Amino acid sequence: MNRSLTIVVAFSVGLTCPAAAKSTAPVLVPVPLPRNNPLKNTEQENQQNSKAAADLFSEKKLPSFGRPMAVGYYPRGCLQGGIELPTTGPTWQVMRLSRNRNWGHPELVKFLERFAPLAAEATGRKGILIGDMAQPRGGPLPFGHKSHQTGLDVDIWFMPMPDRVLSKGERENIKASNLVAADGKHVNDDIWSAADFTFIRTAAEQPEVEQVLVNAAIKKELCRVEGKNDRSWMSKVRPWYGHDDHMHVRLKCPADSPNCEAQPAVPGGDGCDKSLDHWFADWILRLKIPEFGGSARGLKLKDLPPACAAVLNAPAAPASAATEEPSKAR
Ligand SMILES: [Zn+2]
After folding, report:
1. pLDDT score at 29
2. pTM of the prediction?
3. What is the phi/psi pair of residue 103, to 5°?
4. Separation of 251 CA from ligand 1 center, angstroms?
């Protein structure tokens, strides 16, 4: 008992006090940390690694100082120098403002400011409703997604933007409309329309878009409607759990982000083939995977690229720099 106590105390002192660690004699009393401890960073990282990375990143209310850069992989990374999408634009409105997830790499913000009027024009609608993008410094999210970590992912609702500015309360509480029928195998004919088809195709046709995720029943309908026409855009549209009330748009790694890890190419053609069938197996339809395919809560800071510790602990960018670019764009 005494022996194990001695080992534990000597080990814990070794972690925090280099002078004591050199001594061979075990130290049996707690040693207070010196002020200005030279191992402060290590201690900070140790402390941070005892928490979920999602909690650390969600506590940061402002982006990190530094030039914009997407770091790591979509479900295992972070965002340096993120910028904010204005919550209301001429053809878009951001939903669920309390989440503070309307941040992204400038390429994502630029994409949305370009795509919103394009989609409105193509569908004859007023505009788009935007769900989650990323947290100010990206990183794992405490709930809702496995990805959305590098500032290159965005959820866009299928429900069109109404012809008025929604209140904060409405943006918090309005439920997105589900385009999939109750059996999970077809679109809901009562609300599915040709404009939904155009909406998804317009997103997939944009050159900076890597992938668009939708529910398998929606993908099946896209394949049916497109028939034998030019389907070059269709290979970007892939089925995934959930995604019955929004599409997930993922951008390619931007040129300014050497540490951004590209998504491997999806093998096969347009996906309008047998590979779609397994999504309609009963056991798949019964799966209740939380928030569409997984959670990032298990990740620690040490699981992310090392640059993400620097992003997390960097000083905040001045608020004006964070919002300057998007507001200039209008
Ligand atoms: Zn998403």
Report:
1. 43
2. 0.83
3. -115, 155
4. 12
